[in-house]
Backbone:
């Protein structure tokens, strides 16, 4: 009695990002919500909350990487939460899949990321928390609040800890990422270069050229997604051919399809630093995973407390300081 409705906080996991959700709940300081998924013989499935969530704020953590069952599981969990009388439902989508389809750039194609935003809203969600969307404008596909977190909150403290900033310069593997590389360069007070990339078709690079001088510099390539690894491995090769001392990559979402991990291992890259928005398919000596658990836990805490997420977007925060406040 007397407890505000908003004091009842639940964190549930979809099956695509269960470990991450466990870590987030642990940092937030509550047990992960009890849910199950019943599997029918034909592959159909049905998620179920195994505890009452009536009147609570329900956070559902699920990346929507393929297969689309992951997306559908999120939609069903939102629907189930709505029908179980949750007061507020927040979809926490560390990796928002299908985000590369954010515009109609040729005839007869869908804008899949808009379609997915419509489906998530139709299911009954009140708010979305996501990370490094392929394009910022995807936020505008929703008519509800979207909290957009950035991988730079993890990568910039790592760069500061590990490198002599003077020696470092940033690179974008394509024109689309130049804003991101510019932001890192501005924050750390150094410079950046850009690769010009032309694709023959999705996942296949036709041509790549370097714009800028990387001679004798330690270069850090930045991107939102590594899928086949073609973009980043090709850019790394070109950067080394142009006289860089070393090249690394910091990429938020490790899609890593097919033989991408082998490609990274055999490339000019010294290291690929990524996050756990998608579970890594297998460990590799060249790949380091920084967890976004603390960032999501802190975002959840602020949403619950109606606190601003403003300085979460700053690239200079140190995670230990933030966790301490939970
Ligand atoms: C594309 O615009 C993205 O930002 C990534 O550069 C792209 O998805 C990487 O794909 P891949 O690893 O297959 O070259």
Residues:
């Amino acid at each position: 009695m007397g407890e505000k409705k908003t004091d009842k906080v639940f964190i549930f996991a979809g099956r695509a990002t269960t470990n991450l959700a466990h870590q987030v709940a642990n940092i937030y300081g509550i047990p992960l919500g009890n849910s199950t998924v019943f599997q029918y013989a034909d592959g159909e499935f049905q998620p179920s909350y195994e505890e009452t969530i009536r009147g609570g704020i329900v956070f559902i953590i699920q990346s929507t990487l393929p297969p689309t069952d992951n997306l559908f599981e999120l939609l069903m969990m939102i629907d189930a939460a709505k029908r179980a009388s949750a007061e507020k439902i927040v979809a926490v989508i560390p990796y928002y899949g299908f985000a590369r389809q954010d515009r109609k750039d040729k005839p007869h194609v869908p804008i899949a990321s808009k379609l997915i935003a419509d489906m998530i809203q139709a299911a009954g969600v009140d708010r979305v928390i996501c990370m490094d969307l392929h394009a910022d404008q995807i936020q505008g596909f929703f008519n509800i609040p979207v909290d957009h977190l950035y991988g730079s909150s993890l990568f910039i403290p790592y760069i500061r800890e590990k490198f002599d900033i003077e020696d470092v310069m940033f690179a974008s593997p394509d024109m689309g990422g130049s804003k991101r590389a510019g932001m890192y360069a501005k924050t750390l007070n150094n410079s950046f270069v850009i690769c010009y990339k032309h694709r023959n078709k999705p996942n296949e690079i036709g041509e790549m050229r370097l714009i800028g001088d990387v001679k004798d510099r330690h270069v850090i390539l930045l991107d939102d997604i590594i899928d086949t690894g073609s973009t980043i491995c090709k850019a790394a090769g070109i950067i080394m051919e142009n006289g860089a001392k070393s090249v690394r990559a910091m990429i938020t979402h490790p899609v890593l399809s097919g033989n991408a991990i082998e490609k990274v291992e055999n490339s000019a890259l010294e290291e690929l630093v990524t996050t756990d928005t998608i579970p890594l398919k297998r460990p590799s000596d060249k790949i380091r995973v920084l967890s976004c658990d603390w960032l999501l836990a802190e975002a959840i805490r602020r949403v619950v407390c109606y606190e601003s997420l403003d300085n979460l977007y700053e690239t200079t925060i140190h995670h230990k300081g933030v966790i301490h406040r939970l």
Summary: The domain at 152-290 is CATH 3.40.50.2020 (Rossmann fold). The two ends are 25 Å apart (CA to CA). Confidence is low (pLDDT under 50) at residues 1-5, 315-326.
